[in-house]
Amino acid sequence: MDLESFRTYCLSKKGVEETLPFDEQTLVFKVAGKMFALCNLEDFRGASLKCDPVRALELRADYEEIEGAYHMNKKHWNSVKAVGRVPDVLFMELIDHSYDLVVKGLTKKQRDLLLSM
């Protein structure tokens, strides 16, 4: 997966905004103000994605390209490398999973607002 494909896929999700809250090179994707994905704009090698803790450990055991995300809570965030054995379809599935986890954690009011968009 390349940066443009990653960006396009993240932005295709309902209610997503892209921001640069940390610096000019860390692109963050949010839904309802909550992060679900981030990557380096200048040197895209993959992305950090939220993940269910049990699944995160399983993915790390199965793929050397998936590890605990740098500067994030490693229990809930994985770093997924864009090269190697991780196929684009799995990368997109992990983006979906991250987005869905964040949406699931929203209040009912926030979810209803998102669904009405």
From TrEMBL:
Domain of life, source organism: Bacteria
SUPFAM superfamilies per the UniProt record, alphabetical: YjbR-like (SSF142906)
InterPro entries, alphabetized: YjbR (IPR007351), YjbR-like_sf (IPR038056), YjbR/MT2646/Rv2570-like (IPR058532)
PANTHER family: CYTOPLASMIC PROTEIN, CYTOPLASMIC PROTEIN-RELATED
Protein name from the UniProt record: MmcQ-like protein
Gene source species: Persicobacter psychrovividus
